[in-house]
Amino acid sequence: MQERLQKIIAGAGITSRRKAERIILEGRVTVNGQAVSKLGSKADPERDHIRVDGRLLTRTTEFVYLLLNKPVGYVSTVSDPQKRPTVISLVRGIKQRVYPVGRLDYHSSGLMILTNDGELANFLMSRASAVPRSYLVKLEGKPDPAGIAKLESGISLDGRRTEPCRIRPIGEGDKPWFAITLVEGRYHQVRRMFERIGQPVVKLKRVRIAFLTDKDLAPGRVRHLTHAEVERLKNWRAKDTAKGVED
Ligand code: URA
What we know:
Elements: E1 3-4, H1 5-11, H2 17-25, E2 29-31, E3 34-35, E4 42-43, E5 50-52, E6 55-56, E7 65-70, E8 99-100, E9 109-115, H3 118-125, E10 133-139, H4 145-153, E11 156-157, E12 160-161, E13 166-170, E14 177-182, H5 189-196, E15 201-209, E16 212-213, E17 222-224, H6 227-234, H7 238-243
Parallel strand pairs: 9-15
Antiparallel strand pairs: 1-4, 2-3, 2-5, 5-6, 7-9, 7-17, 8-9, 10-14, 10-15, 11-12, 13-14, 15-16
Bound molecules: uracil.
């Protein structure tokens, strides 16, 4: 299949898309022996011989799967117009470019998967996979049980009902934390849900994605997922969610 050259070069893991464009414009790329210096040129990465500075590209099918414990104060995008630190700056020593799967707000912390495997990323973000994500939230006050029950059964957000979810208090006292497990990830969903019952979230931490937890993963640290973990994620089905992954 034909793809844009800059995409192929970036996909080979040697540089970013932007730098790949520069490399092409600088006339450092050949396709089957012919110099190509026009942006937008296409080639077939499976069939064509693409060379950068004379070096033959081998297509990276080497996927990387990382689990990050994001600290508060990082944006979960690859770059930020406001120049705030990004989660990508926490990933070191990996030559492939990885992308965050979904988002965690700047003020939220906790688990994020980063990968260059677009197929798995799309699957994990799809409604069909129904991968559960659990959050611990600290609220401004103490919500009344009727409010919690309402959130659990679903509310209308952006004209669509939220899926039923589980909410449990953690500990006692005036301002207990709550654990909430969602099977979807809509924009600022947790914050907006609790706001709806008059309880702004003051702290939010994602502590579980499917079966992955932050055990042994300090804030700011990244680890590779094991092969078994990746396979388990790829094969995640809604029925696994129904079985329950909570302790
Ligand atoms: N829901 C939110 O409101 N924020 C997050 O960061 C994650 C889920």
